Structures are given as C-alpha cells and as structure tokens.
Amino acid sequence: MQVKKAIFPVAGLGTRFLPATKASPKEMLPLIDKPLVQYVVEEAVASGIEQILFVTGRGKRAIEDHFDISFELETLLQEKGKDQTLREMREISEMVNFFYVRQKQAMGLGHAILCARDFVGDEPFAVLLGDDIIDAGKPCLGQLLEVYERYHGPVLALEMVSPEQISSYGCVRANHISERIYEITDLVEKPKKEEAPSNLAIIGRYVLTPDIFPILAQQKPGKGGEIQLTDAILKLSKKEAIYGCRFEGIRHDCGDKLGFLKATVDMALKREEFNQEFEDYLRERLGCK
What is the pLDDT of residues 157-208, one digit of tens each? Predict the structure, then answer.
C-alpha cells in the first residue's frame, strides 16, 4: 500500500526560541520568506503525500491560518494586480488536503502520533518534524519511501553525528544491508556518549505502519516523563524488521538557534535574486577579499 498520509507533530512549546515563540509557533519562524513548516510540507507533497494531519496544541492557530485561504489578502492582491504573489498564496492552501487534531497534553512525540490514530486508520503513514529542514535533490521523505516500497517495513531517517552530539538524539544499532540502508537491531533515546550503540542518529522523518498504535497505547512514559516514539519502535522491532535510511542531503536543525542561523545563510546563498550581494556582504563582514 502506498503512503499517502503524513503526520506533523507541532504541539511543542518551542522554549529554545523564547521570547520569539511566546505568542508565535516555532514552526512559523521565517526562513528567508517562508515559515519553517512550509518547507517540510513542500517536501511531503513532493514525495507524493496527499493528506497531512497537524497535531497541534494551544497557541498554534497561526499554522492553521497559514495553510488556509485568506479571502481578504487574496482580494487585496488581486486589486493591486500582484498576480504572481496571488498565485503563490493560493498554492499554499491548495497543495494538499490539511487536517488538524489537538494534543491536549504535552506528553511527548509518541503520544502526539497516537493522537493521529483515527486519521491514519489501517494505512502506512509518514511522520515529519517541522524543525528539521533537509535540503536534498531528492526529497528526504521520498528516499525513505523508496526503502519502504522495497522492504515493506517501517523506515527511519538516519544521519551520522559526532559522539558529542549523540546524546541529543535517538540512536540505533544497525546492520548495513545495502548502500545507505540498514536493518535496525536496537534503539536508545538520547544515550550518554559512552553508552551510545553507534553514532547513527534518528532524524525527524519516519515511515511507520499502524502496528505502532497498539504499542503506543500501552507505552509507559520514558525519558523526560514522556511517551517516547523511540521506545515504541524498539518494541515493534521485536515483532518485525525496522529499517534505516542514511539519507542524502544537508540537514539543518532549525530547532536550535545556531542551526537556524546556518540554515538562513545556506538557503540565502541559494537564492538567485540576492545570493551574490549577500555573499559579498558576508565576505566583507568576515574580512575576506
């Protein structure tokens, strides 16, 4: 069965970006001229996703408004003859079918996925985290879906990170089975550096099957007192094969301030309308000729 549904867990409070996120969702922080979450939605659509469910919380109404039609704005743009901008605004609301459900308590990523159970039904589905921006020739999710179609099992996006960084991620032990593809044998959520089974970190892209839901429904809170998706996937791995894909592309951790700054620079340097002027500015600031 093809994967046509995706879940976007966006109920987090974004405390690392306070005070900017006090009244505005972290996912709506602008990267150049688009909010972070739009980049990830575009990746999902480019990968063949047709329905997206946002698992939201209090203070996330701006996400719903962004992907909705804005009659007043569109009328104004039409009256001013700004046809190109008008087309761009309409494309945002028309690119895919959007749905929304509330995560009433902040109980972790695993709980957020469980909130989508009725939406998913008995179909395989994708999960995308809105603060991981992955710049790739072939969409990262599309790479995972190719692995899913080949092996017919859950697939996690993997990235090699330094030993100093591994404690910030879910981590896997895995057997390499072909180019960039692994069969996962163990998963640990945010291990200490000396206890990590490898430096293969789980990144914010997943392809899962509905078999995960009964496990999540019985899952007890793990690290941080939250229902951890990593723990549930570990239990699922005892029943069926779980795969990993070390994706091709550049990942920007935009949930981190430094990562967000790096993403801004990298994405700006790719924009034809001002990349040369921006590069010249950076060289001047850095004292480069």
Answer: 999 998 888 888 888 998 999 889 999 998 888 888 888 888 899 999 999 9
Distance CA 202, CA 157 (A): 6
- In one-letter notation, the amino acid at residue 125 is F
Distance CA 136, CA 128 (A): 15
The string of pLDDT tens digits covering residues 230-277 is: 889 999 998 899 999 999 999 999 988 999 999 999 999 998 998 899
CA dihedral (7, 13, 14, 19) in degrees, to 10, reads 150
Does 197 sit behind a cis peptide bond, omega within 30 degrees of 0 on the bond before it?
no
Residue type, 48: G
Which residue carries 């008995």 as its tokens?
A: 122
Contact 242, 212 (CB under 8 A): no
CA 57 from centre of chain: 17
**Are 77 and 86 in contact, with CB atoms under 8 Å apart?**
yes
> What's the pLDDT tens digit per position in 207-217?
999 999 999 99
pTM exceeds cut of 0.85: yes
> Is residue 202 within 8 Å of residue 169, measured between CB atoms?
yes
